[in-house]
TrEMBL record:
Keyword Cell membrane: yes
UniProt keyword terms in alphabetical order: Cell membrane, Membrane, Transmembrane, Transmembrane helix
Subcellular location: Cell membrane
PANTHER family for this protein: INNER MEMBRANE PROTEIN YEIH-RELATED, UPF0324 INNER MEMBRANE PROTEIN YEIH
One Pfam family cited in the UniProt record for this chain: Cons_hypoth698
Domain of life where this protein originates: Bacteria
UniProt key word Transmembrane: yes
Official protein name in the record: Integral membrane protein (TIGR00698 family)
InterPro entries found in the cross-reference section: UPF0324_pro, UPF0324_YeiH-like
Amino acid sequence: MLSENKRNFFFGILFIALITEIAFFIAEIPAVKALSLSPLIVGLLLGIIYANTLRKFTPTSWAPGVAFCSKKILRLGIILYGFRLTFGQIIDVGIPALMVDAIIVSVTLVGGYFIGAKCMKMDKETALLTSCGSAICGAAAVLGAEAAIKSKPYKTAVAVSTVVLFGTLAMFLYPILYRNGILHLSPENTGLYIGSTIHEVAHAVGAGNATGDAVIAANAIVVKMIRVMFLVPVLLVLAFFVAGRLKSDDEKGDSANTKRKIAVPWFAFGFLAVVIFNSFGLFGTGLLKGIETVDTFFLSMAMTALGTETSLDKFKQAGPKPFILATILFVWLVFGGYGLAYALGA
């Protein structure tokens, strides 16, 4: 027989799994699917709705199970994310795509943090999470950064909200620009432009397919997944050189010289190991699809769990600055990314 504490622990996990299952169902509704809103995003929204309505009716003894979803299952989801990429895909796209992705990630991440934390006087963790979401791979990058720097759940939710807003906007904007002849790029470079600048993987897939060009769609997803690879070095930098020096606005009572204990992001190494393993092509397409579905479910559980810890008061506390920063980064991605893609084809 399980002890009462263990039963409550599993009830917390099952509770999050149930909401996540509902998120998967909603994400398959045609109107929602047309917006390329993944179960991760739907799960987060459901979690936030629950946090601001029904949370007071849920046993507090379930909290450890919910926390397990937002931490341990999150890390497992990041590791399994590696099954979506191989080194062969990187080689096929070539060095120019790697260079463009590297510039986009570096400038967006460093520039976003500097503008947010230094110029706009934002909470440092929120500025960093928002920049990570724009720079790398949307919600997955925010989740990875959150795990590395141990930020509060509501800050993660705020950062992911910016990804939802501007990733969805980009997904509709880019195909319109392409179809109206505004993008003076080859199909290959249009795919490079989309993949290197759109936030979420789902948004990149949606935008690429919406152009109606198979070459654009294929290049967009590969370039986007190469951006995902940058998650590993970024997490290592965050864990070893940034996390210990961050001091949030809600920690002003601590000593200015206090440094946090560095959390080694072993899941980043796990992610890289999975990419290497996947590059050998030992798994068939069907099995990889199954793993991707399981991984999406795990990441959605993590997002849902984070949402359940996010009240609207926390959004008010964060204020408009994260969205202003995300707007600045979006403008950079649209125009800076286009300039890089155009220069590559010149």
